Model the fold of this input.
Amino acid sequence: MKTLTTTALATLMALGLTTAASAEIKIGATVSATGPASFLGDPEAKTLEMLVEELNAAGGINGEEVALVLYDDAGDPNKARTFATRLVEDDEVVAIIGGSTTGTTMSIIAVAEDAEIPFISLAGAIEIIDPVKPFVFKTPHTDRMACEKIFEDMKARQIAKIGLISGTDGFGASMQAQCKAVVGNYGIEIVADETYGPQDADMTPQLTNIKGAEGIQAILNPGFGQGPSIVTRNYAQLAIDLPLYQSHGVASDGFIELAGAAAAEGVRLPGTALLVADLLPDSDPQKAIVAAYKTAFEAKTGTPVGTFGGYAHDAFRILTDAITRAGSSDPAAIRDAIEATSGLVGTTGTVTMSATDHLGLDLSAFRMLEIKDGGWTIVE
Done:
């Protein structure tokens, strides 16, 4: 176990060396700061640490200081469940943020629901919030929404026949299923369907099969981690002259670096305003929020801001806004206030939740992006 905290006070609290009176509001988190999903969890952890520090410097919530108890589950669902249980039973947190991946999120859900503790997930799969679970919320767009945004763009380009090459991890498998469920609504046919494992290092055979499919006009890769970068490199090596779409699961500069700028040229994917902060007009309601987070994160960490840290940023804002409005640190009151979130502008979109919607985003929160000259551009 690795425990990360924002201040010396939080460190002592995580070790159980202070009294409950030392911090009035205790927030828990378990993310994948190390391991195969560290590209998700590391910026999430750094973001939470930074935001708690900023919040306490500004006077906390309603005058009360916040302590963050943050665990690193390394992407292991079993560890995530253990840490979630520890957060509830030992650390006595009022809410949990985390679940960098769909797998770790699903492990945390049962703990949060049983304890009736609000949980805001940072993972993408639609089953996290569909069907709605009373104490479970999330910040990333769902995989179904990503499929819909991509198919909207394909339809506008008059693409009617596509191939899928999907990861078999939790996110890839879920998005593959969601894309199949909605593709017919856009008059698009899947004419080739291939998969790859999380540890696969060469997707050339699958891409060769897809390339040979009759009438194929584009390829979509539902997946996250290193797999999509390998797919993109193999795609370029095979000189496949078709549009390539990726998912929001790789919406970061790290994807371009791993795939290589030349190979990634022309790739399209649905992403957030955060990736194109400098391109947003001043009239965009997200401009000020994404600019402030980008400036603070990059100054604090010396690393580029990315979509995944933005998910943690929005989760923290949703939670602290709810605690402020509730005027209470009672988990049930916080849950009710989260569900009543309305018009909260974040890095991922403008959030308005309800009893039937524990995400609070629509397709307008997505921006269709294209990689050009090694950077992100907005598809008009």
Notes: The first strand starts at residue 2 and ends at 4. The longest helix spans residues 38-57. Residues 1-23 have pLDDT under 50 and may be disordered. The two ends are 46 Å apart (CA to CA).
